[in-house]
Design goal:
Pfam families: DinB. This protein is mostly helical. It has five helices and two strands; from the N terminus they run H-H-H-H-E-E-H. The mean pLDDT is 91.
């Protein structure tokens, strides 16, 4: 019996240690997933016609904001060393039209970048990355991904409220 308890404790310790090793990535994944889910809920709450709405000339429409998030997920991930899926035309994302197509592209991008966050090794979090607009470490890159999704969630909440769309989680 003592051997069984010892064995169980050993496996629990290994599992806990593994979780702690990836604590940063797991935490960022959880927060990012929450933002992603809410952006998708907003995307689904807008009508097809509202996808062309923009608050003023020169500012992204609803559709453009959603596709910007999708493209940025691939861009930032690629700068961190992860090649986007071969079937994704990153430069052609802005040409996607139609609510269902835009949501599908965003969901694919979200799943991809969420997976890549988990692939960053803890030992690499301090490694320098040149993002083109600045140099920082990989941890900074993970935080940019999370913050960028949150920033555009806020933008889309404002767009929704301006169009009489209530964010689904606040109904």
């Amino acid at each position: 019996m003592k051997k069984l308890v010892s064995l169980i404790c050993m496996f629990m310790a290994i599992g806990f240690t593994h979780a702690q090793e990836n604590l940063t990535q797991n935490t960022i994944q959880g927060l990012l997933k929450g933002n992603q889910d809410q952006v998708i809920q907003l995307a689904e709450a807008f009508s097809e016609e509202q996808y062309d709405w923009r608050p003023m000339e020169g500012v992204n429409s609803v559709a453009e904001a959603l596709l910007h998030v999708a493209g940025s997920n691939y861009f930032i991930g690629s700068k961190m060393g992860f090649a986007p899926p071969e079937e994704v035309d990153v430069m052609g994302l802005t040409k996607i039209t139609g609510k269902s197509n835009i949501i599908a592209a965003l969901k694919k991008s979200n799943a991809w970048v969420l997976d890549k966050v988990g692939e960053v090794e803890s030992s690499e979090l301090g490694s320098e990355v040149d993002f083109g607009f600045m140099k920082m470490n990989k941890l900074g890159g993970l935080l940019i991904i999370m913050e960028h999704n949150g920033e555009h969630k806020g933008q889309l909440i404002a767009y929704a409220r301006s169009n009489g769309v209530v964010p689904p989680w606040s109904e």
